[in-house]
Amino acid sequence: MRFLLLGLGLVLWVGPTVRRSDAQDTSAIDRGVRIGIVYQPGVRPGLVVLPGRPAGLDSARAMLMRDLDYSDRFELITLPAGDSLRVGAAALGTAPPARGAPARGRTGGAPAAGPNYPLYLALGADFIVDVRAAGDTAVVDLHDVAAGALRRAFPARLPAPGAAGFRMAVHRLADQVLQATLGAPGMAATRVGFVKDGKVYVIDQDGADMHLVSSTDRQAMSPAWAPDARRLAYMEFWQGHGQLFVQDLGNGERTAVATTGRALDFTPAFSPDGKTLAFSRATEEGTDVYTVNAKDNCCLQRLTVGRFSDNLSPAYSPDGQRIAFVSTRSGLPQIYVMAADGTDQQLFAPFDYGVTGASNAPEWSPDGQSVAFHRDVAGTLQVFVLDVRTRTVRQLTSVGRNEDPTWAPDSRHLAFVSDRSGYRQLWIIDLDTGRIRPLLQQSGARLPAWSPRLPETAATNP
Amino acid sequence: MKRLTLLALAVVAGAVTAAACGGPKPPPQAPTPQPNADSAAAAERARQDSMDAANRAAQAAEAERARRQQEADAAAGAQRTTEEVRAMLAAMIHFDYDKAVLRGDDVGTLDQKVATLQANPNLRIRISGHCDERGSDEYNLALGNRRATAAKQYLVSHGIDAGRIETTSYGEERPLAQGHDESAWAQNRRDEFEIISGGDALKKP
User: Which of A451, B128, B142, B199 is the most exposed place for a label (fewest CB within 10 A)?
Assistant: First the structure.
């Protein structure tokens, strides 16, 4: 898409071979680039990831480019025809003074020669990202095009591509670049838990590296991340009961949550300090919200007493003070809110009695400003967002059936389930641009839960 | 039957022998028929005794055979009854969309379960509520729970001890029909009844 934009903005001529009578440059110049109309960048800053050497970093470069693209904060500029732009531009003699370094042919640990800033400025780039090797360390250089200077260099000791920790190390670099360019925290170093065929899996936010988490012989539901992003809570059916588990994704060790497993317990949700686990418990009295002490794995508390109505699907506010939940006290399920101790229960997302459809699956955004949920609209489900301050709702989706939204840690992306492609799968929407992309091209994935940013681990920390 | 024939042959042979003993004496020279009469009576008694014995043996054999047959019949019958009662117990009930209210046409099915539970005091069951795929995945666990509870409440209100009935819900996680139309949905909005214990030999109500 961005290539298209670039193509529209540039009169680009990539000829077969430019013959020059007297070659002034010893490096092979076999293609040239002419710039006609100056590219007009969009409102988002333009960013270009330079191709280049060494090829061993190509997978890191590709991942970085994709992560920055998926952040939806840049116009990603794709260079036509490999690195002809770099070479061709230099050949045109427009390269800036090379600060004493050779214009091309950068080697191993040598500092980068300055890129052709005016050229990239003309292409609409505000930032240039270059990935290079320095000994056994990969270095990501971030150039500020307007300033015509290197802004930051991020060295990282990357595990070999394919080795454990490689992907997360690159994702972290992408988040660092985002932080250094726009001062915004990213969401590249995150994963998404979800359910497929009755099992809980996790996957990187870019759709790679899928792992099974739950048991192979039981039916599981409702994954929920601990705030440390290392542990995942979920529910499994067993002998007519629903039991909650907390599993350490590092070593695979899992612990049954105290008091659960003798009734139907489901939809676990960690408090932001990780000390409390709220969940729904269905008994013959109906379904109500309970909590247990997640630290000491004890001490059951009941937060709602529904009697003739159901209360379920708790979701903590990021300050831990409040819990959004679903209640059928007015008939159809709707979104309510209460203090974390169960007091002060009140309607949260407004609805028209007898008109508005059932509303379910609330999740509080990490910035605390919104609660995403889904609501029945004319017999199908759509994703809505509640503005916590004004208590107004807006409908986010309208194509197909869309449900179970979950927030990325940047509070502007949501993963959700949609059948817009013909079958139910996971999608990600950027609330600012409205851009939608599939997270997982597999049928039947549902109940997504987006992790907080992953902590650095020994394997990826140089 | 073969044994009986052999016995009868032996008896007849005995009688012939006895008759032959008296046979050679010429009738005109028979002033004392007494010994003859005695031996005939003895023979007759012997014949009668052996016949009685044979009859008794035959009767015993017949009784034994009948008893075994009866036992086999009873076992087969009990097995058949148990199967029938199990099938009756497994009969599902169904619900309207997003409702957990028992339907009138399911009352007969539930009454049968009341009678079955009354006739089999050791029987314990689990009722699981299920939903169609249209609602929210997690809300459907709560809805299925209400459906299971509604059936249990009916059974308990008709005299069944609440401790004999467990309830649970599988929401939309275990659909019976895989389709995506009203006919599949209607089949999937249901309560299932399964035996937890005491279901080895069931009596008909």
Answer: B199
Output the CATH code of domain A191-450: 2.120.10.30
For residue B28, is it within any domain?
no
The alpha-carbon gap from B168 to the nearest alpha carbon of chain A, in Å, equals: 6
Q: Are residues B95 and B75 in the same domain?
A: no
B167 CB near a chain A CB, below 8 Å?
Answer: yes
Q: Does B142 touch chain A (CB under 8 A)?
A: yes
Q: Which residues of chain B lie closer than 8 angstroms to A284, CB-CB?
A: 149, 152-153, 167
**Does B140 contact A at CB distance below 8 Å?**
no
Pair B8, B46 in one domain: yes
Nearest CA in chain A to B141: A282
From the list B138, B143, B168, the residue facing A241 with the nearest CB is B168
Q: ipTM value, please give it.
A: 0.82
Residues B73 and B95 in one domain: no
**Quick one: B96 and B188 in the same domain?**
yes
User: Identical fold at A2-20+28-182 and A191-450?
Assistant: no
Chain B touched by A219 (CB under 8 Å): yes
The total number of structural domains in chain B stands at 2
Supply the CATH number for residue B119's domain.
3.30.1330.60
Tens of pLDDT, residue by residue over A416-445, are 999 999 999 999 999 999 999 999 988 899
Of B142, B166, B173, the CB nearest to A310: B142
pLDDT tens-digit map of A175-208: 999 999 999 999 999 999 999 999 999 999 999 9
Secondary structure of residue B173 in the 3-state scheme: coil
Which tokens in the block code for residue A390? 């004004």
Instruction: Kindly report the three-state secondary structure assignment for every residue of B100-142.
Output: CCCCHHHHHHHHHHHHHHHHCCCCEEEEEEECCCCCCCCHHHH
Of residues A17 and A362, more confidently modeled = A362
Q: How far is A336 from chain B (nearest CA, A)?
A: 14
> A2-20+28-182, what's its fold?
Rossmann fold (3.40.50)
Q: Which residues of A22-48 are buried (b: 16+ CB within 10 A; e: fewer)?
A: eeeeeeebebbbebeeebebeebbbbb
Identify the H or E element spanning B37. Answer: helix B34-90
- Structural domain of residue B124, as residue ranges? 91-197
Contact B138 A446 (CB under 8 A): no
Same-domain check for residues B50 and B139: no
Residue B130 included in any domain: yes
On whether the CB atoms of residues A235 and A265 are closer than 8 A, the answer is yes
Four-CA torsion B179, B180, B182, B183, nearest 10 degrees? 0
This prediction has a pTM of 0.80
B167, B168, B173 ranked by CB distance to A219: nearest: B173
Q: Are A150 and A141 in contact (CB under 8 A)?
A: yes
Query: Is residue B203 situated within a structural domain?
Result: no
Whose CA is closest to B121, among B192, B66, B4, B202? Answer: B202
Nearest chain B residue to A266 by CA: give it: B138
- Cα nearest neighbour of A310 on chain B: B142
Do B134 and B160 belong together in one domain? Answer: yes
**What are the angstrom distances between the C-alpha of B125 and each of A46, A121, A239, B89, B166?**
66, 75, 13, 9, 6
Q: Is A243 on the interface with B (CB under 8 A)?
A: no
How far is B188 from B129, CA to CA, in rounded Å?
Answer: 10
CA distance B188 to B128: 12
Q: For chain A, give every domain's residue range.
A: 2-20+28-182, 191-450
Indicate if B62 and B128 belong to the same structural domain.
no
